[in-house]
């Protein structure tokens, strides 16, 4: 078993190293699931076989020691070398290969359940959601609001509450589902979403857009026009860049593309059933549904709702719209 365990642990370490170095495309959900299964099997084996065997060996050692002491006492010898308690402790101690498997199972199981069904942490890698979310924000995503899903295979177990316009949602990027994206829901199934001349309209009703103070983007040290947008009951801020045109270049081929009409002013799309139209709050610097299409319900990961840390700005901690 020590040799087999060493191979198993080396496989996990090798996969993690290759992922970190960019040699393979990692899947953390799958890795965590496999770690939970493997350590769980070791935990069961420990409880049902290895621990009982160590206890039996300890009992045999104690019985043998007691017989030896009794035999020596019958011969008048009372001074006997050896510490029974210390020897018993050594026999009951978990070997390293169980300590690194069965011993870690409760922690790995807790992380697996928490991450898969309750809350998952994410780090914002790009500026597509500025000013709502900044690069480096560490956020929490609610995994059960939109329905509980099985990890890895993403099968839905409960319906939950459907995504609403204005929600900030994490989803698996349709062109490459191994990547997680975060954008704002601006269109739900059946909606007609228009983004023309940098103005958002949903079902023929313009979304209110009120000017706000210009936003300083610290990385580029440039100011951008900032607006407060109100979509249904959600109020949030967006950015527009006057130097970027309204038309949408480099549109990809995607499912239900026939539901969209592109022009120099922008795009108009009819959202199909079971899909959502997503846009970044940094409107002219966001690769979103305008470019690659609709997000199917099966790609939903969860609802983003809280910034739990930003190491460069502790004042960022808190909830957001």
Automatic annotation (TrEMBL):
Single annotated GO MF: serine-type endopeptidase activity
Residues annotated as domain Peptidase S26: 98-309
Location(s), subcellular: Membrane
Alphabetical keyword list: Hydrolase, Membrane, Protease, Transmembrane, Transmembrane helix
UniProt entry tagged with the keyword Hydrolase: yes
Family the UniProt entry places it in: Belongs to the peptidase S26 family.
Catalytic activity from the UniProt record: Cleavage of hydrophobic, N-terminal signal or leader sequences from secreted and periplasmic proteins
Signal peptide: none
PANTHER family membership: CHLOROPLAST PROCESSING PEPTIDASE (PTHR43390:SF1), SIGNAL PEPTIDASE I (PTHR43390)
Membrane-traversing stretches: 28-45, 97-118
GO biological processes: signal peptide processing
Protein name: Signal peptidase I
EC number: 3.4.21.89
Residues of the active site: 128, 183
